[in-house]
Design a protein that fits this description.
With 126 residues, the chain is mostly helical. The protein has helices spanning 27-36, 55-70, 73-84, 96-125, and strands at residues 38-44, 49-54.
Length: 126
């Protein structure tokens, strides 16, 4: 959108002619390579001395450290979503009148079924 109006492109014309060059790595690929890189650390909080750690491990340690310092539940939720997968949202609760209507329908269906079953039993008994 330019100047408050939509920009329409001619057929076959790109909105980003220079775009990403063919063969250029995706951002996600570059980030994964960086995260997998091992770096030397003067103090490894796990071994309590110098050592090597992957950058992704250092990021995870920093997130845990920040959570422990601040008690920020949002940070904890984001860490757990990444580690264990996001928990699906529970189904929204139904309003009381909708639940009552469903219960009434179920009772009516049960009465019909039971009534039909009783009348069948009576007919068979004759």
């Amino acid at each position: 959108m330019r100047g408050g109006t939509l920009q329409h492109w001619e057929k076959g014309e790109s909105g980003n002619p220079s775009g990403k060059p063919k063969g250029a790595p995706r951002f996600r690929t570059v980030l994964r390579e960086i995260f997998a890189t091992e770096v030397f650390v003067n103090f490894d909080p796990i071994t309590k001395g110098p050592g090597k750690r992957k950058i992704v491990e250092l990021i995870a340690l920093k997130l845990v450290e920040n959570f422990l310092k601040t008690g920020d539940v949002d940070t904890f939720d984001r860490m757990m979503d990444r580690a264990e997968g996001k928990v699906p949202n529970p189904a929204p609760e139904k309003p009381a009148d909708e639940i009552n209507a469903e219960n009434n329908i179920n009772v009516n269906i049960n009465n019909l079924v039971n009534g039909a079953a009783k009348s069948e039993r009576v007919k068979v008994a004759d």
